Amino acid sequence: MEITEPKAVKTIVIASGKGGVGKTNITANLAVALSKTGKKVLVFDADLGLCNINVLLNLTTKYTIQDLFMGELRLKDIIVDGPGGIKILPASSGIQELTALDEFQRLRLIEEFELYDEDVDYLLIDAPSGISSNVAFFCTASQDIIIVTSAEPTALTDAYALIKVLFINHQEKNFKVLINEVKNEAEATDVFIRLSDAAEQFLSISLDYMGFIPYDELIPMAVRQQKALMEIYPESNAAKSFLRIAKALNLNSDTHLKGTLQIILGGLIKTSC
Ligand SMILES: Nc1ncnc2c1ncn2[C@@H]1O[C@H](COP(=O)(O)OP(=O)(O)OP(=O)(O)O)[C@@H](O)[C@H]1O
Ligand SMILES: [Mg+2]
User: Fold this and answer.
1) Distance between CA 141 and CA 185 in Å, rounded?
2) Does the pLDDT of residue 9 top 50, yes or no?
3) Average pLDDT, integer, range 202-207
4) b/e 61-74 (16+ beta carbons within 10 angstroms → b)
5) How far is it, in rounded angstroms, from Cα 141 to Cα 62?
6) What is the C-alpha separation between 21 and 181, in angstroms, rounded?
7) What spacing in Å lies between the alpha carbon of 22 and ligand 2's midpoint?
8) Centroid of ligand 2 to alpha carbon of 3 (angstroms)
C-alpha cells in the first residue's frame, strides 16, 4: 500500500462589505494569474443565489451547486473548465434558499470537498457581499481572508463592518486588504491606513496590506466581452497588478491550518493498494 503525503491547499476567500467593489473580477483574474505562475486553481462562486463568474466569463454550465444539494451529482460533475486552465465551481441564479446555507448543506459541501481528489494548489472563493451567515461560514472555513475595498467611504465603512463582525462574532483576526480601483499606490496606502487605523483603534487588530489593483478601463471592456482581463489584456496595468499579487501569494505560502475547507482539501490522503 502506498500512502502519499497530504497536500496543502491554500483556501482564500475574497470578501467585501459593500457590493460591486470588484470581488468577482479579482477572483477570476487572480485565479488566471496564479495559473500563469504554474499553480492549479479551483474557483468557487460562493455567491450561491446570484451566480456571477459564469456570466463574467461566458461559461456554459450544465449543472450548478444547486444540483449538488439536490441529489446525486458529485463536485467533479459540476466543475467546469475556465480560461487559462482554471476550474470553476458555478453557483446558481435566483435561488434564494441558497443565500443562507443550513447545517446539512454546509456539511454536504464540506463532505464533497473531502471527496474531491483532483490536484489543487489554490481554492479561491468569491463570496457574496455583506455580512450574511454564508459570508461568515466561508470566511471561517478559509485559511486566508482577503477584504476588498475601493476608496469610497461607503466601501471602507462596510469593509470595517465586515471585519468587526468576523472578529467579534467569529474570532477572526487575520485579514489581508486589497484596495481596488485606485489611481496609484499612494492612494491605495492612504485608503489602507484609514481602514487599518480604525481596526487598530477600535478592535485592536492589525490588518495586512496586500496591494492594489488600479482603476483600469480595460476591466469593464473585458467584462463586456465576457472574457478574463488576464487573457485578453495581459499587458494592461491591472493585469500586471494581478500577476504581482499572485507571485506575492506564492512567495508567502505559509501553511498554517485554519478552517474546515482548507483542512479537508489539504488533508486528503490518497491510498492505493
Ligand atoms: N480595477 C477596476 N477598474 C475598473 N473597473 C473595475 C475594476 N474592478 C472592478 N471594476 C468594475 O466594477 C464592476 C463591479 O465588479 P465586480 O462584479 O467584480 O464586483 P463584485 O464585488 O463582485 O460585485 P457583487 O458584490 O455584486 O458581487 C464591474 O463592472 C467591473 O467592470
Ligand atoms: Mg461578484
Assistant:
1) 31
2) yes
3) 97
4) beebbbbbbeeebe
5) 27
6) 8
7) 7
8) 40
Measured from the CB, is residue 213 less than 6 Å from ligand 1? yes
Confirm or reject: Cβ of 183 under 6 Å from ligand 1.
no
- Ligand 1 close to Cβ of residue 52 (< 6 A): yes
Alpha helix ranges (H) inside 79-124: 103-115
* pLDDT tens, position by position, 133-162: 989 999 999 999 999 999 999 999 999 999
Give the distance (Å) from ligand 2 centre to CA of residue 148. Answer: 11
Give the CA distances from residue 82 to residues 49, 113, 241, in Å, rounded to whole numbers and listed in that order. Answer: 20, 19, 21
Q: Give 263 or 71, the one with higher predicted confidence.
A: 71
CA distance 170 to 165: 7
231, pLDDT greater than 70? yes
Question: With pLDDT > 70 as the criterion, what percentage of the chain qualifies?
Answer: 86
Q: What angle do CA 103, 107, 112 make, to 5 degrees?
A: 150
Ligand 1 pocket residue status of 19, Cβ below 6 Å = yes
* Cβ neighbours for 155, distance < 8 A, ≥ 6 positions apart: 16, 17, 18, 21, 149
Nearest CA to ligand 1 atom 31: 220
Average pLDDT over residues 81-108: 84
Cβ of residue 158 lying under 6 Å from some atom of ligand 1: no
Q: Are 83 and 232 in contact (CB under 8 A)?
A: no
Is 34 within 8 Å of 242 (Cβ atoms)? no
User: Measured between alpha carbons, how far apart are the two ends of the chain, in Å?
Assistant: 4
Question: Which residue, among 163, 182, 249, 177, has the nearest Cα to 208 in the 3D structure?
Answer: 177
| Best probe residue, ligand 1, of 18, 30, 219 (max atoms within 8 Å of C-beta) | 219
